[in-house]
Amino acid sequence: MSLSLAQERVGSISDLRYDLEFWIPGALTDPVTGRAELRFEWSGEGPLLLDFASTPDRVGSLRVNGRDSVGVDLRDEHLRIPSTLLESGGNVVEIEFEAGDGSLNRNEEFLYTLFVPDRARWAFPSFDQPDLKARYSLTLHVPGGWRAVANGAALEEVTEEPAPDGPGKTSVRFAQTEPLSTYLFSFAAGRFEVEEAVRDGRRLRLFHRETDSTNVARNLDAIFDLHATALAWLEEYTGIPYPFGKFDFVAVPSFQYGGMEHAGAILYRASSLFLEESTTQAQLLGRASVIAHETAHMWFGDLVTMRWFDDVWMKEVFANFMAAKIVNPSFPELNHDLRFLLAHYPAAYSVDRTAGANPIRQSLDNLNEAGTLYGAIIYQKAPIVMRQLERLVGETALRDGLREYLATYRFRNASWPDLIEILDRRSPLDLAAWSRAWVDEPGRPTVTVDIGPVPRRGREGDGAGQRPRVTVSQSDPLGRGLVWSQPLGFTAVTAGRAITTDVRLEAERASFEIGPEEPDFVLANGGGAGYGLFRLNPETRERLLKDLPAVGDPIPRAVAWLSLWDELLEGTVSPTAFVELAERAIESETEELLLSRMLADLETAYWRFLAPAERASVGPTIERLLWSSLEMAPTSTLKASYFRTYRRLGLSAEAIGRLEAIWREDLDIPGLPLSEPDYMGLAYELALREVPDAEEILARQQERIENPDRAARFGFMRASLSADPAARDRFFESLSDPVNREREPWVLQAVGFLNHPLRAEHALRYVLPSLELLEEIQRTGDIFFPKRWLDGTLGGHASNDAAEIVRVFLDERPDYPPRLKAKILQSADMLFRSARLRG
Fold first, then answer.
1. CA–CA separation, 16 vs 133, rounded Å?
2. What is the DSSP letter of 373?
3. Do strands 78-81 and 74-75 pair parallel, antiparallel, or not at all (unpaired)?
4. Hey, CA dihedral for 754, 107, 779, 3, is it positive or negative?
5. Residue from 418, 513, 505 nearest 467 by CA
6. Closest of 250, 281, 252, 255 to residue 266, by C-alpha
7. CB neighbour burial string for 136-163, b if at least 16 within 10 angstroms, e if fewer
8. Are 115 and 186 in contact (CB under 8 A)?
9. pTM to 2 decimal places
10. Which of 20, 659, 772, 837 is at a distance of 20 to 30 A from 614, taking alpha carbons?
11. Residue 687 near residue 749, CB atoms below 8 Å
12. Nearest-5° angle of CA 330, CA 336, CA 340?
């Protein structure tokens, strides 16, 4: 789907409506069949192209404006309708077809659609572009005993009597929707349980397959309450009532994403909603955030949709930006500035520091590459930029501008320049120029700080005394001469006491006085608002490596931690020094959010930057620290954080013995109840460590699992965990068949096991063929799959040999698709750095 074709069609098609009907069989071997009736106004010339990624033999019949037996001309994923059959004005096209399974996500007991970004064409003939919104009428025929949900409300449900040789059918007719883009049209059906609640006079329904009734009961009120809170907040903020009538959501086992914002029928990964007793604070926050994020999409993305996927970031940035605002009141005990810092900056930096960095807003000539636009720059950097925009124009001006934007383009499409034009009228600033540096270009500035005294006059004007002066400089590491306008909070730390001065960096260099006394050190971004590579001078770096835990304020302490992580990656802090700091910092850290970040970074440094001999040397000390911290932790969420890190890092005989005793239920962890997924995780880690009875542990764990969806996933994993290298090789080879990659979350976890650091030497053979599969994976997989495939493949490697395979692969393919090359460079960045540092 080219941009030129999309623009041509949007100029000639209007008042588009789909009447769709699907027959879903009980057996996976039988095809889903369908009927589509498209009604639209037409003012174009030449043949009309419908999008359908299929073959002519899967089109049963085609009628145009009542004319039967129209010849099927289907090629290059377009069904061509001759202009001689079309009329200026109203037209009706009727098609019977066999639906492709690629975007239907069929399982034995349930099915759900996922059409983002351009996958509706895989399932039915359509105009599969975001700026041809349409109203959808839908009827589903599903196996008896199945429940169905779609964007519109169910108007009628009829169940046939069971046939003598099998179950009957249930037919469900749904109400016509408000105007939607094809990627937002959706339905799901299967053996679901349905929970209902009423909040603020609105009925909410949850479709799920969770078999643990205790788990359902423990989470249900929170799930409904979080949705109700998000809806109420968004209605007040936008000034627009919820625009899509009914509000349902579906908890899908092993869903590809955290959530997907189908209007009136949101899909979630089941584990994102149903949290176990052994949950962490980060998981509680994550659930609240994903619910707020998907609910915000009802306005930002669904009500007003981008014209083209080059602006896909707009819907994601507003969903994330609003989610942070929504979630804050539900967690009054948390430091939300700290949360925003840790939730967004590390992930954004992980891409922006790489040779594959991309701008927030990217050009897109064809929708077949739309999936490559997604990533941390959209989801994490863009909210940082939006927060800076809010500070530039003011909270009230931004809110009022967004209200005008939503009201002006309600049920229509808009672009980033449309919004900037609205906001420009409310601000004296040149927002278009500001946007060029932050939105249209990749990368981050490098910021350095110099501290020096300047004369300070005494009372008598004698020039007595000195007052410290800070000079801050920014530079463009890519040599474009860009200057990033942004707020910075310079924090002066003296004897652990932090004083932050807010300034604005508008040019390449700025200086200001601090004081009155000379500080021990200064953090260029101690307030946490700025974005960039903030280099530490040698004195500050050494001081923080010794005294970081003594920095009293959590924001400067977190900024210092992130800066030291950057210094590790830049090669100015050794891995050993960083791990030693992590041990001291974790032992004394009181902020659970920051502790979670420290544990994650410790885990990365342990596996990626320490050689095996170094891990063996420091591992027992780290294990003792984690276990003692687990025992002393005052809350179950803290205990869960320590336990999961201990489980993933433990390598000594003592640690492995303890993990096996916990798995066998011979050892309890006081204050930390373990769930079925926890025991599955223990079995995975024990198998990776190739304990003597690993196969018996896997077999026993398979028998233990009560939830059928989790049992199926565990069964899929077992070959990737085998101690037999030949079995792992056969499993990897099986992934070359797209059919074996259909359960993407399962595949990604298994690829991570295949390439685990403990098996990296053998897994070196998987690196090149994994890279060779990438183009096919991009064509056949969902939007996040290519990058996550790369992360799973390269994430366990740290050797020069692995890094060289990636470099040679790219060097030998100078014409490789640029967006996929960027994804490789993003995923390989840590490999390149770890190989260099360990070398």
1. 7
2. G
3. antiparallel
4. negative
5. 513
6. 250
7. bbbbbbbbeebbbbbbbebeeeeeeeee
8. yes
9. 0.93
10. 659
11. no
12. 120
Residues 6 or more apart in contact with residue 164 via CB below 8 angstroms: none
The Cα–Cα gap between 587 and 585 comes to: 5
Virtual torsion, Cα 215, 218, 220, 222, nearest 10 deg: -130
Task: Report whether 521 contacts 513 (CB < 8 A).
Answer: no
Q: Give the separation between CA 361 and CA 764, rounded to whole angstroms.
A: 35
Assign residue 602 a region (left: φ > 0; alpha: ψ between -120 and 50; beta: otherwise).
alpha
Q: Is 675 helix (H, G, I), strand (E, B) or coil?
A: coil
Pairwise CA distance, residues 628 & 414, whole Å: 55
Using a pLDDT cut of 90, give the percent of the chain over it.
86
Distances (CA, A) of 190 to 144, 147, 206, 562: 9, 5, 13, 45
Which DSSP string do the residues of 170-227 spell out, in sequence order?
A: EEEEEPPPSSB-GGG--EEEES-EEEEEEETTEEEEEEE----HHHHHHHHHHHHHHH
Q: Assign residue 76 a region: left if phi > 0, alpha if psi is -120 to 50, beta otherwise? A: left
Measured CA to CA, the distance from residue 180 to residue 632 in angstroms comes to 53
Distance between CA atoms of 730 and 469, rounded to whole angstroms? 64
**Do residues 91 and 42 make contact, with C-beta atoms less than 8 angstroms apart?**
yes
d(CA 307, CA 297): 15
The strand pairing partners of 639, in sequence order, are none
- For residue 47, the SS3 value is coil
Specify the amino acid at residue 245. G
Highest mean pLDDT among 553-557, 745-749, 835-839: 745-749
- Report the alpha-carbon distance of residue 376 to residue 587 in Å, rounded: 30
Q: Which of 98, 251, 257 is nearest to 188 (CA)?
A: 251
Would you call 273 exposed, middle or buried from its count of C-beta atoms within 10 A (0-12, 13-18, 19+)?
buried
The 10s digit of each residue's pLDDT in 570-597 is: 999 999 999 999 999 999 999 999 999 9
Instruction: Kindly state the average pLDDT of the residues 263-269.
Output: 98
Residues paired with residue 265 on neighbouring β-strands, in sequence order: 248
Report the C-alpha dihedral over residues 369, 531, 807, 564, rounded to 10 degrees. -150
- Does residue 397 contact residue 423 with C-beta atoms inside 8 Å? yes
Are the CB atoms for 391 and 487 separated by under 8 Å?
A: yes
Strand, helix or coil for residue 735: coil
CA–CA dist 9, 178 (Å, integer):
21
Give the closest residue to 710 by CA, choosing from 269, 400, 181: 269
Flag the least confident range among 339-353, 390-404, 477-491: 477-491
Distance of CA 500 to the CA centre of its chain: 33
What is the β-pairing status of strands 134-143 and 13-23? Answer: parallel
Q: What is the pLDDT of residue 463?
A: 46
